[in-house]
Each structure stands twice: as C-alpha cells, then as structure tokens.
C-alpha cells in the first residue's frame, strides 16, 4: 500500500472531529405480556392503596410470562429499529442488564441471532446494576467518534424481582429499551461533559446464587441521593450547564416518587429553592411509562426519556438532564439536546400499544409466575406458550435456552 493511500484510509476511519454530533438516533421499548395492578397487590397484603399510588407513585407493574425473559424483551424492543434502519452500519450490539441469564455468554448474542444481524458484529454484555445502559451509551459514543460511519445498537433489558411479601415487591417491573446510537442523531445529541460518581455501598445487590435482589430500602434511597449530589458536583466542575438551563430531567426511576426525591435533593444541594410547580414541570412527563411498568432497572432512565419525547409539546433545541444511578453504586449526570425534526421519528403509538396490550392478571397468577423457576439439572423443559410477543423462550434443554421467533 502506498503512503498516500494509507494516509487517506486513516483519515476516513478516524473521521471524527470535535464537531461530530453523536447521540440517540432511534429509541424503541418493549414490555411484558402481563401486568399486575397495584390495587391487586394492596388487596392481597392489606396495604392502604395511597402508599402505592401516592407514596411511591406506582400504578401497576409489568410481569413477564413464563416464556419471556431479558432476551425476548430485548429482541422485541430492538426489532422495530432494525426493521426501520436495516442492519447496515451496526457493527456493535451492547446488551446492558443486571438480570443476566448466563455467567459467560452475553444475552446480546441471542438477540443478535433472533434479529438476523450480520456476523461482522461485536456483541458484549455490560453490568453495573441500573447504571449499565448509560455505560453502554457512553461506550457507543466513543466507538462512533472513532468511526462516525458506524452505528451501535444499545439494548437495556431487565426483569426486576424482589422477595414476595417484602417492601421491594411493590417496586418490581420489567422492560427493555433499544437505542440506535449514531452520528447526526435524529432524536437527542448527547453532550460532553459527564459528571461521575462511584461509592462502594451495599444498598442493593444480587449474589450469583440468588434470583431475587437483596436490598436495604432506606439505605438505597440515601445512597441514590448521595450519588445525585456527587455527580452534579463533578458535572459542574467539568464545566457542565447550569441547573436552570435544563427544560426537563430524566432520572433513574426505581419508583416514580424517587425522581421527585432526587430532583428536590439536587435543587437543595445546589442552593436552589424547591418550587413544586417547577419540579412537576421538570419531571411530570418523564414518569408516565415507569409508573405503569415499574422498575425496569437499566431501561428505566431511557423509558423516562421515551415518555418525555412522546408526550411533550415541542422540545426542539432543549437541553435535557439525565441522571443514571446503579446501586452499589455508580452514577452519571449528563446532558442531551433534542434535535430539530425529532417528532417525525418517535414511536409514540407503538409505545402506547406496548403498555395497553398487556393482559391484567390477578394476585394468584402473579404469585405463581414469581415462584416459577427453570430446571437447573439440564433436563428438557418446554415453557408454556403464554406470550403473544414476537419472540419467546420455548424451553431449556441440556442447560441451553431455546428461543423462537414468531
Ligand atoms: P416501605 O418501607 O414499605 O415504604 O418501602 P415507606 O414506609 O418508606 O413508604 C413509602 C412512602 O409512602 C413514604 O413516603 C410514606 O410516607 C408514603 P416518603 O416519606 O418516602 O415521601 N406512604 C403513603 N403515602 C400516601 N398514602 C398512604 C401512605 N403510606 C405510606 N397511605 C421502599 C419503600 C422504596 C424502601 C421499598 O419499596 C424498597 O425497598 N424498594 C426497593 C429499593 C428501591 O427501590 N430503592 C430506591 C433507590 S436505589 C435504586 O434506585 C437502585 C435500584 O433500581 C437497583 C439498581 O440500581 O439496580 C433499586
């Protein structure tokens, strides 16, 4: 290869400059077949419904069918993105989850197969509690700065499971968000800088031998608030925007009231008044999907973004603040600016359908689904066909999960 050809090739593959804008080009989410209204849980355990509806701000929780898991949800979220844009240019799929189904194989490899993506793809799974999808987004942005012709498919998929009859039970949920990250994005440009915060705390964790998470509820709320303050301090020190520049804030929402607690804490710690009308205005639209889906862990903050974009009048050119928190704990505060013309690219009708199509179940059915476990002895097991979604977990055989595409 001549010197001049080599230098042209190198210019093309490192074409990114400081002016390359990178961000979320498309966003789609999927949730489960079933939904449990909080009224049913309250009736069973004798809780005053105001505690759920007002105290934690939750109306219902998505419940996976026996043949749904993080793979089927992730594939269902991502399939419309591949249908709209094709697979060209997608050279990386990052799957973020904390409800992993395998200690070695990335769940994204199953999604890659179900979606028929090309073999020339890099697939990896990322984990840090609910923060994983933001790490995936930043990983994607770095890759695209290196080669702006590439796109990265980020899939955040989780099933949140706490012990039955525990305080955490009311904050369960399940969903997947898929985002196509690219140069010149159609929805949201993600900005530098980011505010970062890590602290070694045991507020919420799930040892490898457990299905359900362990949590110290009140400690977890305190750890989240401490992280909000820490990320904002770092964001400001890195030269970020002032607080008043943001038109809305998307918080990680383990339950929607947590976003309100977090935002008030941010305002107070930054020396601002907490005007409740302004707080409601900054957060109100971001909670609509999380209030009826429940905690979707890694997907939660991006469900907040979906709800905001789908419902706001017009956010063109507006900066939105993102606060991603993952127990344990790692958090990041960053900003995104909404791109002109974004409304033509939204999936509002499909998102409403994903929520409205869920079949309401009673407490007994939910409890039976919660108690179900897959065999661990390698025997053949066919899962009951319950989901009507595009992908299903057909069973398990020889310790291998078997997926089906409809
Ligand atoms: P709890 O102890 O059952 O509830 O658990 P409570 O007594 O704290 O009450 C909750 C709120 O309801 C309170 O409001 C009550 O006053 C109110 P607050 O004082 O907080 O403003 N209340 C009522 N309101 C109206 N009418 C009534 C009524 N009764 C009470 N009748 C807790 C609550 C969230 C701790 C529990 O559900 C839990 O442990 N959840 C799981 C942990 C969690 O979600 N933590 C959040 C921060 S950590 C995080 O976000 C990370 C996470 O997503 C995991 C990850 O990163 O991977 C969890």
UniProtKB/TrEMBL annotation:
Q: Which Pfam families match?
A: HMG_CoA_synt_C (PF08540), HMG_CoA_synt_N (PF01154)
Looking at the record, the residues that make up the Hydroxymethylglutaryl-coenzyme A synthase C-terminal domain are 194-267, 286-340
EC number, as in UniProt: 2.3.3.10
Domain Hydroxymethylglutaryl-coenzyme A synthase N-terminal, chain residue ranges per copy = 21-184
Q: Which GO terms describe its molecular function?
A: hydroxymethylglutaryl-CoA synthase activity
Q: Which residues form a coiled coil?
A: none
InterPro entries (alphabetical): HMG_CoA_synt_C_dom, HMG_CoA_synth_N, HMG_CoA_synthase_prok, Thiolase-like
Q: Which domain of life is it from?
A: Bacteria
Q: Which keywords are on file for this protein?
A: Acyltransferase, Transferase
UniProt keyword annotation of Transferase present: yes
EC top class named in words? transferase
Q: Which NCBIfam families match?
A: HMG-CoA-S_prok
Q: Which PANTHER family match?
A: 3-HYDROXY-3-METHYLGLUTARYL COENZYME A SYNTHASE, HYDROXYMETHYLGLUTARYL-COA SYNTHASE
Annotated family? Belongs to the thiolase-like superfamily. HMG-CoA synthase family.
Name recorded for this polypeptide: Hydroxymethylglutaryl-CoA synthase
């Amino acid at each position: 290869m001549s010197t001049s050809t080599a230098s042209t090739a190198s210019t093309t593959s490192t074409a990114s400059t400081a002016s390359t804008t990178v961000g979320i080009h498309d966003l789609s989410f999927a949730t489960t077949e079933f939904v449990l209204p909080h009224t049913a849980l309250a009736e069973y355990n004798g809780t005053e419904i105001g505690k759920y509806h007002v105290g934690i701000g939750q109306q219902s929780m998505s419940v996976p069918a026996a043949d749904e898991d993080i793979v089927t949800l992730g594939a269902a979220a991502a399939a419309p993105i591949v249908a709209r844009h094709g697979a060209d240019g997608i050279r990386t799929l990052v799957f973020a989850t904390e409800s992993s189904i395998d200690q070695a194989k990335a769940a994204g490899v199953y999604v890659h197969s179900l979606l028929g993506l090309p073999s020339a793809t890099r697939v990896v799974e990322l984990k840090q509690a609910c923060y994983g999808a933001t790490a995936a987004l930043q990983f994607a942005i770095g890759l695209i700065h290196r080669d702006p012709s590439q796109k990265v498919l980020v899939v955040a998929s989780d099933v949140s499971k706490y012990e039955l009859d525990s305080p955490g039970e009311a904050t369960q949920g399940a969903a997947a968000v898929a985002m196509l990250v690219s140069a010149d994005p159609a929805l949201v440009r993600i900005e530098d800088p980011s505010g970062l915060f890590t602290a070694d705390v045991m507020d919420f964790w799930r040892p490898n031998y457990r299905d359900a998470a362990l949590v110290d509820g009140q400690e977890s709320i305190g750890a989240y608030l401490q992280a909000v303050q820490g990320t904002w301090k770092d964001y400001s020190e890195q030269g970020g925007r002032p607080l008043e520049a943001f038109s809305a804030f998307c918080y990680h929402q383990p339950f929607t009231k947590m976003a309100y607690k977090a935002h008030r804490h941010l305002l107070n710690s930054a020396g601002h008044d907490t005007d409740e009308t302004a707080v409601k205005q900054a957060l109100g639209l971001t909670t609509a999907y999380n209030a009826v889906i429940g905690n979707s862990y890694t997907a939660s903050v991006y469900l907040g973004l979906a709800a905001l974009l789908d419902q706001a009048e017009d956010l063109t050119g507006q900066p939105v603040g993102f606060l991603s928190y993952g127990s344990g704990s790692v958090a990041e505060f960053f900003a995104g600016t909404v791109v002109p013309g974004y409304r033509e690219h939204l999936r509002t009708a499909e998102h409403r359908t994903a929520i409205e199509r869920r079949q309401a179940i009673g407490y007994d059915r939910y409890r039976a689904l919660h108690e179900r476990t897959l065999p661990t002895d390698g025997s053949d097991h066919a899962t009951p066909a319950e989901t009507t979604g595009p992908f299903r977990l057909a069973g398990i055989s020889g310790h291998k999960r078997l997926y089906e595409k409809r």
